[in-house]
C-alpha cells in the first residue's frame, strides 16, 4: 500500500485479536491521511512493532492461523486506527495500485 510503521504484531496466544491468528497492524500516511492496514491469519511474521516498512516489502507469509478453513490473507484498510467494529473500514481496492 505505502511505506509505514508496524504498530503491533499479535499472536493467537496473546488474547488481543482472537480469531485472526497471527496479525500485523501497520500505520501509513497517504496524502496526509493516516490509514491502518491489518494482515491476518499469517503463518509467520518477519517484522516487529516500531519497525519501518517499505511498500512491497515482505512482512510475513500467508497462512491459516486463527479461525479459518484454509490458507489465505485477511486484509483490511481503516481510515485512522483499526477498530473491531470496522466503522472506519474503507474498500482496499481504492487504495491499491
From TrEMBL:
Pfam families per the UniProt record, alphabetical: Peptidase_M23
InterPro entries given in the database record: Cell_wall_metabolism_enzyme, Dup_hybrid_motif, M23ase_b-sheet_dom
Domain of life: Bacteria
CDD domains found in the cross-reference section: M23_peptidase
Residue ranges of every copy of the M23ase beta-sheet core domain listed in the record: 2-86
Bilayer-crossing regions: none
UniProt GO molecular function: metalloendopeptidase activity
Protein name, per record: M23 family metallopeptidase
Organism, as annotated: Aquibacillus salsiterrae
